[in-house]
Amino acid sequence: MTVFDRQFFEAILPSQVQALDAQHPDQTPVLHLHLLGGAVLDICHVITFADAWLAVAFFVEPDTCDDVEVAFLPYNQIARLTVSLPATSDRQIGFNTSVRPLAALAHDLDAAAAASE
């Protein structure tokens, strides 16, 4: 069983990165997702998640942060996550926790609809 699952990406990861960001205001949180095959993705934000997989936007060229691609990944292919904190003067764009994943938005809409019934 993998340590990384929907609950981790939905609740634990965002709060941990936000806490690091608050503790280091002159630094940019950069999230690297390391896959079992050896690839490392520099994550822009989580797009959506499901019970067995997630979709992430990642920087193709982390030095410029200009191009972003999307990867759909099963949780069991994730080996580890690392967060680095380069100076904001060196890197202005990193992992964005303010982008709300689509699955979380859908859950919020379902909860609001159920509450209004």
How is this structure best described in words?
This protein has 117 residues and is an alpha+beta fold. It has one domain (6-116). It has two helices and five strands, in the order H-E-E-E-E-E-H. A hairpin with an 8-residue loop joins strand 3 and strand 4 (68-74). The radius of gyration is 15 Å and the shape is globular. 18% of the residues are buried.
Task: Break the fold down into its secondary structure elements and pairings.
Elements: H1 6-23, E1 30-35, E2 40-49, E3 53-59, E4 68-74, E5 78-84, H2 102-116
Antiparallel strand pairs: 1-2, 1-5, 2-3, 3-4
Percentage beta strand: 25-35%
How many domains would you count in the coordinates?
1
Widest sheet, order of strands? 4-3-2-1-5
SS class:
alpha+beta
Give me the strand/helix succession.
Answer: HEEEEEH
Spans of at least 5 consecutive residues whose pLDDT stays below 50 are none
Radius of gyration: 15 Å
Overall form:
globular
- Averaged pLDDT: 86
Give structural attributes.
alpha+beta, 2 helices, single chain, 5 strands, globular, 117 residues, five-stranded antiparallel beta sheet
